[in-house]
UniProtKB/TrEMBL annotation:
Keywords: DNA-binding, Transcription, Transcription regulation. GO terms for molecular function: DNA-binding transcription factor activity; transcription cis-regulatory region binding. PANTHER family: HTH-TYPE TRANSCRIPTIONAL REGULATOR GALS (PTHR30146:SF109), LACI-RELATED TRANSCRIPTIONAL REPRESSOR (PTHR30146). InterPro entries: HTH_LacI, LacI/GalR-like_sensor, Lambda_DNA-bd_dom_sf, Peripla_BP_I. This is DNA-binding LacI/PurR family transcriptional regulator. Residues 2-56 form the HTH lacI-type domain. Coiled coil: none annotated. SMART domains: HTH_LACI (SM00354). It holds the Pfam family LacI.
Length: 324
């Protein structure tokens, strides 16, 4: 069995430097960290996490909510990939709350994970997170200066394509209903795509309606915004919210899509069980989860450089949208 001394000899450094590189505890250059981790992978060296059960290797995963099928799908893929690699998975939730995000990440670090897979509220604003994180991959977020390794889709492009689809069907009063933009850069990017599309078409954008991501869908009230904006189509920032929009329209005595068209994002299976099926942008959540897990293992185990993978999305036309 390989020892830390073997790793240090292969990497051409001291045992102390090798230890700091593997634990990311102390001052070690990124180049040396990659060199030591590559040597450890080549020798099959495995470190026992301090304060934990010997030989227990885990990664930490942070998602906004495990109740959203989008994240459930990604988590399942991550767990399957990590099972093959001999890692357990520890899961935490931010509940779409930037204030709770730091506590959730801190809780994950208590298990001394090999690395982290994070879906953050805003990867461009991470001053609240603990310093000196282990190897980290963003899932669903665009890469940022602090986190260059990321697996995501072009949400701006997706928002633009869905809005363009509605515009081509004759809709000019299109309302964007979303969870709070401060809680999700994905929703904010989708709205940015909406704004680009309506501006390109010379159409006046309607003011976005923002609600809480957690606990606000089933009791959504649209009477005020409907009377003020009179939309012919509504884009929801995710499919679960689209379900809430459809329910709220029905409570107002309106029919989808006869009176108002509705579309969402994510492509979760429940949307195909609606009558009529939901029009949505389908995201490859399972494939993204597997790729994020593989990328993290490559960075943490082989010293591979951080990389960014951009997945394709697909417009799925359902029956909740009609042409005017």
């Amino acid at each position: 069995m390989s020892t830390l001394q073997d790793v240090a000899l292969r990497a051409g450094c001291s045992v102390a430097t090798a230890s700091r590189a593997l634990t990311r505890n102390g001052c070690v250059s990124d180049a040396m960290i990659r060199k030591v981790r590559r040597a450890a992978a080549e020798l099959g060296y495995r470190q026992s996490p301090a304060g934990g059960k010997a030989g227990r290797r885990v990664i930490g995963v942070l998602v906004p909510s495990v109740t959203n099928p989008v994240f459930s799908s990604s988590l399942s893929s991550i767990e399957n990939r990590m099972l093959i690699a001999g890692h357990g998975v520890v899961i935490a939730q931010s509940h779409y709350d930037p204030a709770r995000e730091a506590d959730a990440v801190t809780a994950l670090l208590t298990d001394r994970p090999t690395g982290l897979i994070l879906t953050l509220c805003d990867p461009g604003n991470t001053g609240h997170l603990p310093p000196d994180l282990p190897p980290t991959v963003l899932l669903g977020n665009r890469p940022a200066a602090a986190f260059p390794a990321a697996v995501c889709v072009d949400n701006v492009g997706a928002g633009h394509e869905l809005t363009r689809f509605l515009l081509d069907l004759g809709h000019r009063r299109i309302l964007f209903v979303s969870g709070n933009f401060t809680a999700s850069d994905r929703a904010r990017s989708r709205h940015e795509g909406y704004l680009q599309a309506v501006t390109d078409a010379g159409v006046e954008p309607l003011e976005a309606m923002q609600i809480a991501f957690v606990g606000g869908y089933s009791q959504l009230e649209l009477d005020t915004v409907l009377s003020r904006s009179s939309p012919t189509a509504i884009i929801a920032s995710n499919d679960l919210l689209a379900f809430g929009v459809i329910g709220a329209l029905r409570r107002e005595g309106l029919c989808v899509p006869r009176d108002v068209s509705v579309a969402g994002f994510d492509g979760i299976e429940m949307g195909q069980m609606l009558d009529p099926p939901l029009t949505t942008i389908e995201m490859p959540d399972a494939s993204m989860g597997t790729t994020a897990a593989s990328l993290l293992l490559d960075i943490a185990g082989n010293g591979a450089p951080a990389r960014h993978f951009d997945f394709d999305y697909q417009l799925r036309r359902g029956g909740t949208v009609r042409a005017l």
